[in-house]
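just leaving the lab so this will be short. below you get a single protein, a line of residues and a line of whole numbers that encode the local backbone shape. id like you to explain what the token line says about the fold, in plain words if possible. thanks a lot i owe you, the record is right below:

…
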Amino acid sequence: MTAKTLKLAFPGHSGAELAARLDLPNGPVRAYALFAHCFTCSKDLLAARRIAADLARSGIAVLRFDFTGLGSSEGEFASTNFSTNLGDLLSAAEFLKEHYEAPSVLIGHSLGGAAVLSIAARLPSVKAVVTIGAPSDTAHVLRHLGASPESIEAEGEVDVTLGGRPFRVQQQFVEDVRSHALLDAVAAMHKPLLVMHAPLDEIVGIENATQIFLAAKHPKSFVSLDSGDHLLTGQEDAAFAASVMTGWLSRYISGDEPQGEAPIEHVRVMETGQGKFQNAVQAGRHRLFADEPESYGGMDSGPSPYDFLSIALGACTTMTLRMYADRKKLSLGRINVDVSHAKIHSKDCADCSEALKEQGKIDRFERVIDVEGDISEELRDKLIEIAGKCPVHRTLESVAHVHTRVREGESMTE
């Protein structure tokens, strides 16, 4: 979960109140995204929730909502069509602009993907567009109604079952979806586009992704969702889609402030609410996870706290050795450092100081330095000496003071 998910509502194209959720990051917002769900789905579809939560953890706030007549939104589905969906999307974009910030990103799933492609050119604030399993022709949806378009046109309206739920579809819906030239809109969009599609998608075939990709102008990217299904019901598939989006979007939306440029330099660690121990870590513009292994009750989604200590020691060691080699003009091959951590009895530490030996158990970091190429025994000894001067090494072997306070009267997201 994110730091906060707000329950919101706003008027749609017809004035009917549309139910929405805004997934906010636990920290600064890099950008606002608008998510359009698939045909007859809702904002609470598993894939939509997972993707929104993962994007929020990367600093992107996501507004997802139910189209008119679907989910918790007001209105009659039978009176809606693709054009009214576009109206609802534009209303959502206006709501974001008025109350938060105009959307920089549009994300659409299935027919929602066709919708965001159709309106992208109308929204100057949008810097990037992402589609997931989108059709290249809005009339594609007619294949899945369970009733022929001809019978709907002849009778005026019919009751159909979609996803196990009854819906009434009218003739105007058929006429409307046939009236949109989606690929023309894609060609005229002139926005960076990421097309994501599962090759085994049985609802919207992979050829649709090809047609959208060919119609779009550069910059454009295509990512296969491999074994995922149309609704991305697999947790790993939704997580993969979100991680790819996050990386791709970093080229088109603002990043976090570089570490050290803020008035107070700090690392922020925030519980995500997923699992027992998962935390989102923000260090300047860098974001990653901290967690515990599954054997300790975690999800193994990131390094453990002691792993991070080992990372700090290893990274500091290679940097210190490289600075030394450059200063001495040594032709030193690439440096690798393996670091392991363990709790041991102090009496078993042969090279520990007497002060440490007086303690019961101590932390022991085993560091092995590997340098590509042959080096002399003299240089080998010198590298060990220089590694001991690494600032993190000195911090770990010295007595450090940790000052702690509980913040008062300040927002957690500031």
Remarks:
- Residues 187 and 313 are 51 Å apart (CA to CA).
